[in-house]
Amino acid sequence: MPDRYAVIGHPIAHSKSPLIHGLFAQATGQDMVYQAIDGGAAPGGFERALTDFRAAGGRGLNVTLPFKLAALAVADLASEDARLAGAANALRFEDGRIEARNFDGIGLVRDIEVNLGLPLAGRRVLLLGAGGATRGAVRPLARAGAARIVIANRTADKARTLAAELAPHLDGVPLVGGGLAALATGEAFEVVINATSASLSGAAPELPACAFAPGALAYDMVYGQGLTPFLRLARAAGCARLADGVGMLVEQAAEAFAWWRGVRPDTREALARLTVPLA
Ligand code: ATR
User: Fold this and answer.
1) CATH number at residue 23
2) Does the beta carbon of 160 lie inside 6 Å of ligand 1?
3) pLDDT tens, residue by residue, 141-191
4) Are residues 81 and 109 in the same domain?
Protein backbone atom coordinates (compact mmCIF):
# COMPACT_ATOMS: atom_id res chain seq x y z
CA MET A 1 0.00 0.00 0.00
CA PRO A 2 1.44 3.38 -0.98
CA ASP A 3 1.68 6.01 1.79
CA ARG A 4 -1.01 8.67 1.62
CA TYR A 5 -0.52 12.42 1.57
CA ALA A 6 -2.75 15.29 0.50
CA VAL A 7 -3.20 19.03 0.25
CA ILE A 8 -6.22 20.51 1.97
CA GLY A 9 -7.76 23.93 1.29
CA HIS A 10 -10.90 25.64 0.07
CA PRO A 11 -11.18 26.04 -2.84
CA ILE A 12 -8.62 23.44 -3.90
CA ALA A 13 -9.44 22.43 -7.49
CA HIS A 14 -6.71 24.62 -8.99
CA SER A 15 -3.96 23.61 -6.56
CA LYS A 16 -0.62 22.76 -8.19
CA SER A 17 0.39 20.73 -5.16
CA PRO A 18 -0.67 17.27 -6.50
CA LEU A 19 1.31 17.88 -9.71
CA ILE A 20 4.39 19.04 -7.79
CA HIS A 21 4.38 16.17 -5.29
CA GLY A 22 3.59 13.68 -8.07
CA LEU A 23 6.74 14.81 -9.89
CA PHE A 24 8.78 14.62 -6.68
CA ALA A 25 7.50 11.10 -5.87
CA GLN A 26 8.24 9.88 -9.38
CA ALA A 27 11.73 11.37 -9.45
CA THR A 28 12.69 10.00 -6.02
CA GLY A 29 10.94 6.63 -6.43
CA GLN A 30 8.79 7.08 -3.34
CA ASP A 31 5.77 4.77 -3.02
CA MET A 32 3.11 7.33 -2.21
CA VAL A 33 -0.14 8.85 -3.43
CA TYR A 34 -1.04 12.51 -3.12
CA GLN A 35 -4.57 13.84 -3.44
CA ALA A 36 -6.41 17.16 -3.04
CA ILE A 37 -9.05 17.53 -0.33
CA ASP A 38 -11.60 20.32 -0.23
CA GLY A 39 -12.18 21.21 3.43
CA GLY A 40 -15.32 23.15 2.46
CA ALA A 41 -16.61 26.46 3.76
CA ALA A 42 -18.60 25.15 6.73
CA PRO A 43 -17.15 25.55 10.25
CA GLY A 44 -15.32 22.41 11.40
CA GLY A 45 -14.78 21.16 7.84
CA PHE A 46 -11.01 21.21 8.15
CA GLU A 47 -10.97 19.31 11.45
CA ARG A 48 -13.42 16.67 10.14
CA ALA A 49 -11.46 16.14 6.94
CA LEU A 50 -8.23 15.86 8.94
CA THR A 51 -9.71 13.25 11.28
CA ASP A 52 -11.04 11.22 8.34
CA PHE A 53 -7.72 11.42 6.50
CA ARG A 54 -5.75 10.25 9.54
CA ALA A 55 -8.24 7.44 10.18
CA ALA A 56 -7.74 6.29 6.59
CA GLY A 57 -3.98 6.03 7.19
CA GLY A 58 -2.90 9.47 5.92
CA ARG A 59 0.71 10.33 6.80
CA GLY A 60 0.87 14.07 6.17
CA LEU A 61 -0.89 17.12 4.77
CA ASN A 62 0.04 20.31 3.04
CA VAL A 63 -2.35 23.00 4.21
CA THR A 64 -3.39 26.03 2.22
CA LEU A 65 -5.91 28.85 2.53
CA PRO A 66 -8.02 29.26 4.58
CA PHE A 67 -6.86 26.54 6.99
CA LYS A 68 -3.27 27.50 7.89
CA LEU A 69 -4.26 28.94 11.26
CA ALA A 70 -6.49 25.96 12.06
CA ALA A 71 -3.62 23.64 11.13
CA LEU A 72 -1.42 25.21 13.78
CA ALA A 73 -4.23 25.03 16.31
CA VAL A 74 -4.65 21.24 15.95
CA ALA A 75 -0.92 20.51 16.31
CA ASP A 76 0.58 18.73 19.32
CA LEU A 77 4.04 19.97 18.34
CA ALA A 78 4.92 23.03 16.24
CA SER A 79 8.21 24.46 14.96
CA GLU A 80 9.22 27.96 16.01
CA ASP A 81 8.75 29.17 12.42
CA ALA A 82 5.14 27.96 12.54
CA ARG A 83 4.51 29.46 15.97
CA LEU A 84 5.92 32.85 14.97
CA ALA A 85 4.05 32.75 11.68
CA GLY A 86 0.89 31.91 13.62
CA ALA A 87 0.17 29.38 10.89
CA ALA A 88 1.23 25.98 9.58
CA ASN A 89 1.41 24.83 5.97
CA ALA A 90 2.55 21.25 6.56
CA LEU A 91 1.43 18.55 9.00
CA ARG A 92 2.92 15.15 9.73
CA PHE A 93 1.20 12.38 11.63
CA GLU A 94 3.59 10.27 13.65
CA ASP A 95 3.35 8.22 16.83
CA GLY A 96 -0.25 9.36 17.29
CA ARG A 97 0.76 13.03 17.29
CA ILE A 98 0.24 15.91 14.89
CA GLU A 99 3.43 17.85 14.09
CA ALA A 100 3.22 21.24 12.37
CA ARG A 101 5.72 23.23 10.34
CA ASN A 102 5.63 26.34 8.21
CA PHE A 103 7.85 26.07 5.14
CA ASP A 104 6.64 29.18 3.28
CA GLY A 105 9.47 31.37 4.53
CA ILE A 106 12.23 28.84 3.90
CA GLY A 107 10.70 28.19 0.46
CA LEU A 108 11.02 31.91 -0.28
CA VAL A 109 14.62 31.98 0.95
CA ARG A 110 15.62 28.93 -1.09
CA ASP A 111 14.00 30.35 -4.20
CA ILE A 112 15.87 33.64 -3.85
CA GLU A 113 19.20 32.08 -2.92
CA VAL A 114 19.28 28.84 -4.93
CA ASN A 115 17.00 29.37 -7.92
CA LEU A 116 17.54 33.09 -8.43
CA GLY A 117 21.16 33.00 -7.29
CA LEU A 118 21.02 35.92 -4.88
CA PRO A 119 22.58 35.25 -1.47
CA LEU A 120 20.62 37.10 1.20
CA ALA A 121 23.53 37.58 3.59
CA GLY A 122 24.18 41.27 4.12
CA ARG A 123 21.20 42.41 2.00
CA ARG A 124 18.65 45.00 3.01
CA VAL A 125 15.21 43.45 2.56
CA LEU A 126 11.92 45.31 2.22
CA LEU A 127 8.74 43.33 2.87
CA LEU A 128 5.52 44.94 1.69
CA GLY A 129 2.42 44.02 3.70
CA ALA A 130 1.85 43.04 7.30
CA GLY A 131 -0.38 39.98 6.98
CA GLY A 132 0.29 36.26 7.27
CA ALA A 133 2.63 36.11 4.27
CA THR A 134 5.01 38.66 5.81
CA ARG A 135 4.72 37.09 9.25
CA GLY A 136 5.93 33.75 7.84
CA ALA A 137 8.82 35.27 5.87
CA VAL A 138 10.58 37.43 8.46
CA ARG A 139 12.38 34.82 10.57
CA PRO A 140 13.71 32.73 7.66
CA LEU A 141 14.98 35.92 5.97
CA ALA A 142 16.75 36.92 9.16
CA ARG A 143 18.20 33.43 9.54
CA ALA A 144 19.58 33.69 6.00
CA GLY A 145 21.64 36.66 7.18
CA ALA A 146 19.70 39.69 5.93
CA ALA A 147 21.45 42.84 7.19
CA ARG A 148 18.19 44.57 7.97
CA ILE A 149 14.50 43.95 7.35
CA VAL A 150 11.85 46.63 6.95
CA ILE A 151 8.13 45.87 6.90
CA ALA A 152 6.13 48.57 5.11
CA ASN A 153 2.37 48.43 5.07
CA ARG A 154 -0.54 50.53 3.85
CA THR A 155 -1.75 50.55 7.47
CA ALA A 156 1.45 51.66 9.20
CA ASP A 157 0.42 50.63 12.71
CA LYS A 158 -0.02 47.02 11.67
CA ALA A 159 3.57 46.92 10.41
CA ARG A 160 4.90 48.55 13.59
CA THR A 161 3.04 46.08 15.80
CA LEU A 162 4.21 43.08 13.78
CA ALA A 163 7.83 44.27 13.79
CA ALA A 164 7.75 44.81 17.55
CA GLU A 165 6.38 41.31 18.05
CA LEU A 166 8.90 39.53 15.80
CA ALA A 167 12.06 41.58 16.50
CA PRO A 168 13.02 39.73 19.72
CA HIS A 169 13.15 36.42 17.79
CA LEU A 170 15.65 37.40 15.08
CA ASP A 171 19.01 36.98 16.83
CA GLY A 172 19.75 40.67 16.58
CA VAL A 173 18.87 41.25 12.92
CA PRO A 174 17.31 44.74 12.89
CA LEU A 175 13.60 44.78 12.01
CA VAL A 176 11.42 47.86 11.81
CA GLY A 177 7.89 48.47 10.64
CA GLY A 178 6.16 51.53 9.23
CA GLY A 179 3.99 52.99 6.50
CA LEU A 180 4.57 52.99 2.74
CA ALA A 181 4.81 56.78 2.67
CA ALA A 182 7.92 56.74 4.88
CA LEU A 183 9.78 54.95 2.08
CA ALA A 184 9.80 58.14 -0.03
CA THR A 185 12.56 59.65 2.07
CA GLY A 186 14.23 56.49 3.23
CA GLU A 187 16.79 53.90 2.20
CA ALA A 188 17.00 51.69 -0.87
CA PHE A 189 16.73 47.90 -0.67
CA GLU A 190 18.47 45.11 -2.60
CA VAL A 191 15.49 42.80 -2.20
CA VAL A 192 11.89 44.07 -2.35
CA ILE A 193 9.20 41.47 -1.71
CA ASN A 194 5.51 42.02 -2.28
CA ALA A 195 3.72 40.03 0.41
CA THR A 196 0.49 42.02 0.16
CA SER A 197 -2.65 40.67 -1.46
CA ALA A 198 -2.74 43.74 -3.74
CA SER A 199 -1.84 41.81 -6.91
CA LEU A 200 -4.95 39.68 -6.52
CA SER A 201 -7.10 42.79 -6.88
CA GLY A 202 -5.07 44.20 -9.76
CA ALA A 203 -3.35 46.82 -7.63
CA ALA A 204 0.21 47.52 -6.49
CA PRO A 205 1.30 48.90 -3.13
CA GLU A 206 2.14 52.59 -3.52
CA LEU A 207 5.87 52.32 -3.44
CA PRO A 208 8.36 55.05 -4.47
CA ALA A 209 10.95 54.14 -7.14
CA CYS A 210 13.77 55.10 -4.76
CA ALA A 211 13.03 52.03 -2.60
CA PHE A 212 14.73 49.82 -5.23
CA ALA A 213 18.52 49.84 -4.95
CA PRO A 214 20.46 49.55 -8.24
CA GLY A 215 20.34 45.89 -9.32
CA ALA A 216 17.57 45.08 -6.83
CA LEU A 217 15.42 41.97 -7.03
CA ALA A 218 11.66 42.62 -7.08
CA TYR A 219 9.78 39.53 -5.93
CA ASP A 220 6.01 39.08 -5.95
CA MET A 221 4.77 36.16 -3.85
CA VAL A 222 1.82 35.78 -6.22
CA TYR A 223 2.47 33.32 -9.04
CA GLY A 224 1.21 32.35 -12.46
CA GLN A 225 -0.12 35.80 -13.31
CA GLY A 226 2.72 37.08 -15.48
CA LEU A 227 3.75 40.64 -14.79
CA THR A 228 1.72 41.72 -11.77
CA PRO A 229 1.05 45.41 -11.05
CA PHE A 230 3.88 45.32 -8.48
CA LEU A 231 6.34 43.83 -10.97
CA ARG A 232 5.29 46.43 -13.56
CA LEU A 233 5.88 49.16 -11.01
CA ALA A 234 9.30 47.68 -10.23
CA ARG A 235 10.20 47.52 -13.91
CA ALA A 236 9.09 51.11 -14.43
CA ALA A 237 11.36 52.04 -11.51
CA GLY A 238 14.30 50.59 -13.44
CA CYS A 239 14.41 47.21 -11.73
CA ALA A 240 15.60 44.48 -14.10
CA ARG A 241 15.47 41.43 -11.81
CA LEU A 242 11.86 40.37 -11.48
CA ALA A 243 10.42 37.15 -10.04
CA ASP A 244 7.04 35.80 -9.08
CA GLY A 245 6.28 33.29 -6.32
CA VAL A 246 6.27 30.06 -8.35
CA GLY A 247 9.67 29.07 -6.99
CA MET A 248 8.51 29.73 -3.44
CA LEU A 249 5.56 27.40 -4.04
CA VAL A 250 7.77 24.64 -5.42
CA GLU A 251 10.49 25.02 -2.77
CA GLN A 252 8.08 24.94 0.19
CA ALA A 253 6.64 21.75 -1.30
CA ALA A 254 10.15 20.29 -1.53
CA GLU A 255 10.76 21.11 2.14
CA ALA A 256 7.54 19.33 3.14
CA PHE A 257 8.41 16.35 0.93
CA ALA A 258 11.87 16.06 2.50
CA TRP A 259 10.36 16.31 6.00
CA TRP A 260 7.85 13.55 5.26
CA ARG A 261 10.03 11.19 3.24
CA GLY A 262 13.61 11.93 4.28
CA VAL A 263 14.59 12.55 0.64
CA ARG A 264 15.13 15.98 -0.91
CA PRO A 265 13.64 16.14 -4.41
CA ASP A 266 15.23 18.03 -7.28
CA THR A 267 12.88 20.97 -7.97
CA ARG A 268 13.96 21.86 -11.50
CA GLU A 269 11.35 19.88 -13.41
CA ALA A 270 8.45 21.15 -11.29
CA LEU A 271 9.75 24.70 -11.70
CA ALA A 272 10.03 24.31 -15.47
CA ARG A 273 6.50 22.90 -15.68
CA LEU A 274 4.89 25.66 -13.62
CA THR A 275 6.80 28.76 -14.61
CA VAL A 276 4.74 31.27 -16.58
CA PRO A 277 6.73 33.93 -18.47
CA LEU A 278 6.72 37.36 -16.84
CA ALA A 279 5.30 39.21 -19.80
P1 ATR B 1 -2.25 37.42 4.12
O2 ATR B 1 -2.54 36.69 5.39
O3 ATR B 1 -2.45 36.62 2.87
O4 ATR B 1 -0.95 38.15 4.12
P5 ATR B 1 -3.93 39.60 4.98
O6 ATR B 1 -3.66 39.29 6.40
O7 ATR B 1 -5.33 39.87 4.56
O8 ATR B 1 -3.43 38.49 3.99
O9 ATR B 1 -3.01 40.84 4.60
C10 ATR B 1 -3.06 41.42 3.35
C11 ATR B 1 -1.98 42.49 3.28
O12 ATR B 1 -2.04 43.09 1.99
C13 ATR B 1 -2.15 43.62 4.29
O14 ATR B 1 -0.89 44.04 4.70
C15 ATR B 1 -2.86 44.70 3.45
O16 ATR B 1 -2.64 46.01 3.91
P17 ATR B 1 -3.56 46.63 5.11
O18 ATR B 1 -3.03 46.03 6.37
O19 ATR B 1 -3.34 48.07 5.01
O20 ATR B 1 -4.96 46.20 4.79
C21 ATR B 1 -2.17 44.50 2.14
N22 ATR B 1 -2.91 45.03 0.98
C23 ATR B 1 -4.01 44.51 0.41
N24 ATR B 1 -4.38 45.24 -0.67
C25 ATR B 1 -3.47 46.25 -0.78
C26 ATR B 1 -3.28 47.34 -1.69
N27 ATR B 1 -4.12 47.55 -2.71
N28 ATR B 1 -2.22 48.17 -1.50
C29 ATR B 1 -1.37 47.98 -0.47
N30 ATR B 1 -1.49 46.96 0.42
C31 ATR B 1 -2.53 46.12 0.26
Assistant:
1) 3.40.50.10860
2) no
3) 999 999 999 999 999 999 999 999 999 999 999 999 999 999 988 899 999
4) no
